[in-house]
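Service request form, structural biology core

Requester: graduate student, group of Dr. S.
Request type: structure prediction, single chain
Budget code: on file
Notes: please return the result as C-alpha cells.

Sequence provided:
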Amino acid sequence: MIQEFDIRLFNDVAQIIEQGKKQSISQVNSILTFTYWQIGKKINDHILNNERAEYGKKVVANLADVLEQHYGRSYTLRNVRRMRYFS
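Core staff response, request fulfilled:
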C-alpha cells in the first residue's frame, strides 16, 4: 500500500522527469536547427564558389538523394532546399 509520503515523492520525481524530457526536446530542437543551418550554408557556399545555376541544381538534387539514402526522410530534396534558404 502506498502511503501519502510515497505519493508526494513519486509526484516530485515525476515532475523532475517531465522537466528533463522538456529540456531535452528543447535542446534537440536547437541542435537540429543549427545543424540544418550549417548544411544550408555549406551547400550555398559550395554552389557560390562554382557560380553556375545549373551546377547548383544538380549538386543539391544529387546530394539530397545520397543524404536521404544514408540519413532518412529528413534529407529529401525538398528539405535540403529549405535548408539552403534557411541559411
